[in-house]
């Protein structure tokens, strides 16, 4: 069964930075490159929503492109390491409104959701 494991969250003061990591289980390593990936956030009482996405594997024949929600544009950067089967989210200049549980998944959301990693930015 495919597992996604998010890590790197924590408590950080406003203006600080965190780097989140998403590891995919060995069962999908052979097809990792075929997926486009996203980072999603969820706060209590609200739907999970996409905040960053990366399409393409970053090769010459398949260059990658990234997209961001307006709320994080210019502050967050999504990236992928195809060799390590990892997806990352670099978050800079964090704000209290970034407080949420962060998840990774494919853009089709067709893998089982992991536990997520909590990011807390006190106001």
Question: What would a concise description of this structure say?
Answer:
By secondary structure, this protein is mainly beta. It contains no helices and ten strands.
Task: Give structural notes.
With 123 residues, this protein is mostly beta strands. The chain contains no helices and ten strands. It has strands at 4-7, 10-11, 18-24, 37-42, 49-55, 65-68, 76-81, 86-91, 100-106, 117-120. The strands form two sheets. A six-stranded mixed sheet has the order 2-10-9-4-5-6, with no helix packed on it. It is globular, with a radius of gyration of 14 Å. The N and C termini lie far apart (39 Å).
Helical residues, percent:
under 10%
Helix and strand sequence? EEEEEEEEEE
Largest sheet: 6 strands, mixed
Strand segment tally: 10
The residue-averaged pLDDT reads 93
Strand arrangement, major sheet: 2-10-9-4-5-6
Please identify the structural class as seen in this structure: mainly beta
pLDDT < 50 runs, ≥5 residues? none
Count of DSSP-assigned helices: 0
Q: What proportion of the residues form beta strands (DSSP E)?
A: 35-45%
First-residue to last-residue Cα separation: 39 Å
Write down the Rg.
14 Å
Bulk shape: globular
């Amino acid at each position: 069964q495919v597992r996604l494991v998010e890590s790197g969250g924590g408590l950080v003061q406003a203006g600080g930075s965190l780097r989140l990591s998403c590891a995919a289980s060995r069962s999908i390593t052979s097809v990792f490159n075929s997926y486009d990936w996203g980072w999603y956030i969820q706060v209590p009482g609200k739907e999970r929503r996409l905040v960053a996405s990366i399409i393409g594997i970053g090769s010459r024949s398949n260059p990658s492109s990234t997209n961001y929600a307006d709320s994080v544009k210019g502050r967050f950067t999504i990236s992928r390491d195809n060799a390590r089967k990892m997806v990352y989210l670099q978050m800079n200049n964090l704000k209290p409104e970034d407080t949420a549980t962060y998840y990774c998944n494919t853009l089709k959301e067709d893998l089982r959701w992991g536990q997520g990693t909590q990011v807390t930015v006190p106001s």
